[in-house]
Amino acid sequence: MIKSGGMDKDEIIRASKNIFNQFTDTCLQIPDEIFFLQPTEKWSIAQITTAKKFPFIQKWQRENEKYLESLELRWSDRQLDQYLAPHPLLGKLTLRELCYFTIYHTGHHLDIIKVRLTEQLN
User: Fold this and answer.
1) What is the mean pLDDT of residues 16-37?
2) Which of 10, 41, 59, 82 is the most exposed place for a label (fewest CB within 10 A)?
3) What pLDDT, on a 0 to 100 scale, did the predictor assign at position 39?
């Protein structure tokens, strides 16, 4: 059952691919010398990793592929509303809600990266 105004599984997959690709493309455009730059007084992945940019992005892409493959092959549209998954802050979410959150959360971090990149380049 699709909630009124909600996305069906195919729309979720398209939106996920779109935001994942935008995130990847943006990260690939960031110069290596500032990709892992640690911002002052702000948390960054740079504080917990010494990874190189390209392998880091490749891992991101592999995880996205696993997520999308699971969504495409394992779950029906109906099951997205039937199964619950725990989220440490939001509590129990349906799989559809978790998909929405993943799209939103990736976009949120993409926006942060764009702002910080603009700050670094100016």
Assistant:
1) 89
2) 41
3) 67
Where are the chain's structural domains?
58-122
From the list 67, 54, 66, 84, the residue with the least C-alpha distance to 12 is: 67
Task: Provide CB contacts within 8 A for 57, sequence distance 6+.
Answer: 24, 27, 28
Question: pTM of this prediction?
Answer: 0.86
**Element housing 35 (H / E):** helix 32-35
- pLDDT tens-place string over residues 3-26: 546 899 999 999 999 999 999 999
- Residue at 28: amino acid letter: L
> Closest Cα partner for 27 from 116, 113, 115?
113
Measured CA distances, 66 to 43, 49, 71, 90, 102 (Å): 27, 22, 8, 23, 14
How far apart (Å, rounded) are the C-alpha atoms in residues 7 and 101?
12
User: What's the CA gap between 71 and 12, in Å, rounded?
Assistant: 9
Instruction: Give the position of tokens 């992005």.
Output: 57
Q: Residue count of the chain, please give it.
A: 122
3-state secondary structure of 85: strand
How many Å apart are CA 21 and CA 19, to the nearest integer?
Answer: 5
